[in-house]
Design brief:
- The chain is mostly helical.
- The chain has one domain.
- 67% of the residues lie in helices and 0% in strands.
- The longest helix is centred in the N-terminal third of the chain and has 30 residues.
- The radius of gyration is 19 Å and the shape is globular.
- The two termini are 29 Å apart.
Amino acid sequence: MKASPTEFRFRFLILAVIYCLGFVAPWNYWLHLDSIRTWQLLAAWPARSGWISFSAATIIVLAFGILCALKGAVLRTWGSAHLGTSVVQGAAMHGEGVVAAGPYRHVRNPLYLGTFAHTFALALLMPPSGAVFCVLAVALFQLRLIAAEESFLAAKLGGSYLAYCTKVSRLWFAIAPRVPASDVRPNWPMAFLGEIYMWGVVITFAVLGWRYNSILLIKGVLISLGISLIARAFLPRN
Protein backbone atom coordinates (compact mmCIF):
# COMPACT_ATOMS: atom_id res chain seq x y z
CA MET A 1 0.00 0.00 0.00
CA LYS A 2 1.45 3.34 -1.05
CA ALA A 3 1.51 6.54 0.96
CA SER A 4 -1.00 9.30 0.27
CA PRO A 5 0.05 12.75 -1.01
CA THR A 6 -0.66 14.14 2.47
CA GLU A 7 1.69 11.61 4.05
CA PHE A 8 4.37 12.50 1.52
CA ARG A 9 3.93 16.20 2.18
CA PHE A 10 4.33 15.73 5.93
CA ARG A 11 6.85 12.87 5.72
CA PHE A 12 9.51 14.64 7.82
CA LEU A 13 6.99 15.43 10.54
CA ILE A 14 5.74 11.84 10.55
CA LEU A 15 9.30 10.54 10.84
CA ALA A 16 9.94 12.95 13.71
CA VAL A 17 6.86 11.63 15.53
CA ILE A 18 8.06 8.04 15.02
CA TYR A 19 11.50 8.90 16.40
CA CYS A 20 9.98 10.70 19.40
CA LEU A 21 7.80 7.70 20.21
CA GLY A 22 10.86 5.48 19.96
CA PHE A 23 12.80 7.63 22.42
CA VAL A 24 9.92 8.08 24.86
CA ALA A 25 8.48 4.54 24.52
CA PRO A 26 5.37 5.41 26.56
CA TRP A 27 4.31 1.75 26.66
CA ASN A 28 7.31 1.09 28.95
CA TYR A 29 5.55 3.07 31.68
CA TRP A 30 2.25 1.32 31.09
CA LEU A 31 3.84 -2.17 31.14
CA HIS A 32 6.42 -1.30 33.82
CA LEU A 33 9.35 -2.30 31.60
CA ASP A 34 12.98 -1.40 32.22
CA SER A 35 14.22 1.83 30.61
CA ILE A 36 17.79 0.78 29.76
CA ARG A 37 19.18 1.92 26.42
CA THR A 38 19.56 -0.44 23.49
CA TRP A 39 23.31 0.01 23.26
CA GLN A 40 23.66 -1.04 26.91
CA LEU A 41 21.63 -4.16 26.19
CA LEU A 42 23.62 -4.99 23.05
CA ALA A 43 26.93 -4.50 24.88
CA ALA A 44 25.88 -6.53 27.91
CA TRP A 45 24.68 -9.54 25.91
CA PRO A 46 28.08 -10.73 24.52
CA ALA A 47 29.80 -9.73 27.76
CA ARG A 48 27.47 -11.92 29.83
CA SER A 49 28.01 -14.77 27.40
CA GLY A 50 31.75 -14.48 28.04
CA TRP A 51 32.65 -13.78 24.42
CA ILE A 52 34.29 -10.39 24.99
CA SER A 53 34.53 -7.85 27.78
CA PHE A 54 31.76 -5.32 28.37
CA SER A 55 34.20 -2.49 27.53
CA ALA A 56 35.10 -4.04 24.16
CA ALA A 57 31.45 -4.77 23.39
CA THR A 58 30.51 -1.17 24.16
CA ILE A 59 33.18 0.08 21.74
CA ILE A 60 31.90 -2.25 19.02
CA VAL A 61 28.33 -1.02 19.49
CA LEU A 62 29.49 2.60 19.40
CA ALA A 63 31.50 1.94 16.23
CA PHE A 64 28.37 0.42 14.69
CA GLY A 65 26.42 3.56 15.59
CA ILE A 66 29.06 5.83 14.07
CA LEU A 67 29.16 3.79 10.86
CA CYS A 68 25.35 3.82 10.54
CA ALA A 69 25.20 7.57 11.13
CA LEU A 70 28.02 8.13 8.62
CA LYS A 71 26.41 5.89 6.00
CA GLY A 72 23.15 7.77 6.39
CA ALA A 73 24.83 11.17 6.06
CA VAL A 74 26.91 10.14 3.02
CA LEU A 75 24.02 8.59 1.11
CA ARG A 76 21.64 11.46 1.79
CA THR A 77 24.21 14.17 0.98
CA TRP A 78 25.33 12.37 -2.17
CA GLY A 79 21.75 11.94 -3.28
CA SER A 80 20.77 15.52 -2.42
CA ALA A 81 23.73 16.91 -4.35
CA HIS A 82 22.53 15.25 -7.56
CA LEU A 83 18.77 15.46 -7.08
CA GLY A 84 18.70 18.99 -5.64
CA THR A 85 17.80 20.09 -2.12
CA SER A 86 14.61 21.80 -3.29
CA VAL A 87 13.37 18.45 -4.59
CA VAL A 88 14.57 16.52 -1.54
CA GLN A 89 12.93 18.94 0.89
CA GLY A 90 9.89 19.67 -1.29
CA ALA A 91 6.33 18.99 -0.19
CA ALA A 92 5.27 17.57 -3.56
CA MET A 93 6.67 14.84 -5.79
CA HIS A 94 8.81 15.88 -8.76
CA GLY A 95 9.39 14.02 -12.00
CA GLU A 96 11.11 16.21 -14.58
CA GLY A 97 13.25 13.31 -15.81
CA VAL A 98 15.18 10.22 -14.78
CA VAL A 99 18.17 11.19 -12.62
CA ALA A 100 20.86 8.58 -13.30
CA ALA A 101 23.79 10.30 -11.62
CA GLY A 102 25.75 9.89 -8.41
CA PRO A 103 24.17 7.28 -6.11
CA TYR A 104 21.18 6.91 -8.43
CA ARG A 105 23.41 4.84 -10.72
CA HIS A 106 23.77 2.31 -7.89
CA VAL A 107 20.38 2.32 -6.12
CA ARG A 108 17.01 3.91 -6.89
CA ASN A 109 16.32 5.27 -3.40
CA PRO A 110 19.58 6.39 -1.75
CA LEU A 111 17.78 8.99 0.39
CA TYR A 112 15.48 6.43 1.98
CA LEU A 113 18.34 3.97 2.36
CA GLY A 114 20.35 6.67 4.12
CA THR A 115 17.48 7.50 6.45
CA PHE A 116 17.11 3.83 7.35
CA ALA A 117 20.83 3.55 8.20
CA HIS A 118 20.51 6.71 10.30
CA THR A 119 17.56 5.13 12.13
CA PHE A 120 19.76 2.27 13.35
CA ALA A 121 22.16 4.80 14.89
CA LEU A 122 19.36 6.61 16.74
CA ALA A 123 17.81 3.30 17.82
CA LEU A 124 20.90 2.59 19.93
CA LEU A 125 19.91 5.52 22.17
CA MET A 126 16.32 4.32 22.62
CA PRO A 127 14.88 1.76 25.04
CA PRO A 128 14.88 -1.68 23.34
CA SER A 129 11.11 -1.70 22.80
CA GLY A 130 11.29 1.83 21.37
CA ALA A 131 14.16 0.82 19.08
CA VAL A 132 12.22 -2.14 17.67
CA PHE A 133 9.12 0.01 17.17
CA CYS A 134 11.12 2.78 15.51
CA VAL A 135 13.03 0.56 13.08
CA LEU A 136 9.88 -1.28 12.00
CA ALA A 137 7.75 1.86 11.77
CA VAL A 138 10.36 3.77 9.75
CA ALA A 139 10.87 0.80 7.43
CA LEU A 140 7.12 0.43 6.81
CA PHE A 141 6.57 4.15 6.29
CA GLN A 142 9.49 4.46 3.89
CA LEU A 143 8.35 1.47 1.85
CA ARG A 144 4.98 3.17 1.49
CA LEU A 145 6.67 6.42 0.44
CA ILE A 146 8.78 4.54 -2.10
CA ALA A 147 5.68 2.86 -3.53
CA ALA A 148 3.99 6.25 -3.91
CA GLU A 149 7.00 7.90 -5.55
CA GLU A 150 7.73 5.05 -7.93
CA SER A 151 4.09 4.85 -9.00
CA PHE A 152 4.10 8.62 -9.63
CA LEU A 153 7.35 8.48 -11.63
CA ALA A 154 6.24 5.48 -13.68
CA ALA A 155 3.02 7.26 -14.63
CA LYS A 156 4.78 10.53 -15.46
CA LEU A 157 7.99 9.33 -17.13
CA GLY A 158 6.78 6.09 -18.63
CA GLY A 159 9.20 3.81 -20.45
CA SER A 160 12.40 5.66 -19.56
CA TYR A 161 11.78 5.23 -15.85
CA LEU A 162 10.61 1.63 -16.19
CA ALA A 163 13.78 0.81 -18.12
CA TYR A 164 15.83 2.44 -15.37
CA CYS A 165 14.01 0.35 -12.75
CA THR A 166 14.87 -2.89 -14.53
CA LYS A 167 18.59 -2.09 -14.20
CA VAL A 168 18.85 -0.39 -10.79
CA SER A 169 17.67 -2.03 -7.57
CA ARG A 170 15.13 -0.33 -5.33
CA LEU A 171 17.15 -0.56 -2.10
CA TRP A 172 20.13 -2.85 -2.73
CA PHE A 173 23.23 -0.73 -3.31
CA ALA A 174 25.26 -2.10 -6.23
CA ILE A 175 29.02 -1.64 -5.98
CA ALA A 176 29.37 -0.99 -9.72
CA PRO A 177 27.16 1.58 -11.49
CA ARG A 178 24.22 -0.07 -13.24
CA VAL A 179 23.47 2.66 -15.79
CA PRO A 180 25.47 5.32 -17.68
CA ALA A 181 25.80 8.70 -15.97
CA SER A 182 23.34 11.40 -16.94
CA ASP A 183 24.42 15.02 -17.33
CA VAL A 184 23.77 16.35 -13.82
CA ARG A 185 26.05 18.77 -12.02
CA PRO A 186 25.99 18.13 -8.24
CA ASN A 187 25.53 21.05 -5.86
CA TRP A 188 27.59 19.97 -2.85
CA PRO A 189 27.33 23.14 -0.70
CA MET A 190 23.53 23.08 -0.73
CA ALA A 191 23.54 19.32 -0.20
CA PHE A 192 25.66 19.59 2.94
CA LEU A 193 23.52 22.45 4.18
CA GLY A 194 20.34 20.47 3.55
CA GLU A 195 21.71 17.42 5.38
CA ILE A 196 23.43 19.30 8.20
CA TYR A 197 21.34 17.41 10.75
CA MET A 198 22.73 14.10 9.51
CA TRP A 199 26.30 15.33 9.81
CA GLY A 200 25.55 16.76 13.24
CA VAL A 201 24.52 13.27 14.38
CA VAL A 202 27.72 11.80 12.93
CA ILE A 203 29.80 14.34 14.87
CA THR A 204 27.73 13.70 18.01
CA PHE A 205 28.40 9.97 17.92
CA ALA A 206 32.05 10.31 16.89
CA VAL A 207 32.97 13.01 19.43
CA LEU A 208 30.64 12.48 22.38
CA GLY A 209 30.06 8.75 22.07
CA TRP A 210 33.26 7.89 23.89
CA ARG A 211 31.79 9.30 27.08
CA TYR A 212 29.16 6.54 26.97
CA ASN A 213 26.45 8.92 28.10
CA SER A 214 23.23 8.37 26.13
CA ILE A 215 21.59 11.50 27.53
CA LEU A 216 24.52 13.58 26.27
CA LEU A 217 24.21 11.98 22.84
CA ILE A 218 20.47 12.65 22.73
CA LYS A 219 21.16 16.31 23.52
CA GLY A 220 23.64 16.37 20.63
CA VAL A 221 21.00 14.93 18.32
CA LEU A 222 18.49 17.60 19.41
CA ILE A 223 21.05 20.38 18.90
CA SER A 224 21.75 19.01 15.41
CA LEU A 225 18.03 19.08 14.68
CA GLY A 226 17.75 22.68 15.87
CA ILE A 227 20.66 23.78 13.68
CA SER A 228 19.10 22.02 10.68
CA LEU A 229 15.80 23.86 11.18
CA ILE A 230 17.68 27.15 11.09
CA ALA A 231 19.61 26.03 7.99
CA ARG A 232 16.35 25.33 6.15
CA ALA A 233 15.82 29.08 5.88
CA PHE A 234 18.81 29.23 3.52
CA LEU A 235 17.73 26.36 1.25
CA PRO A 236 16.27 27.05 -2.21
CA ARG A 237 12.49 26.81 -2.43
CA ASN A 238 12.11 26.01 -6.14
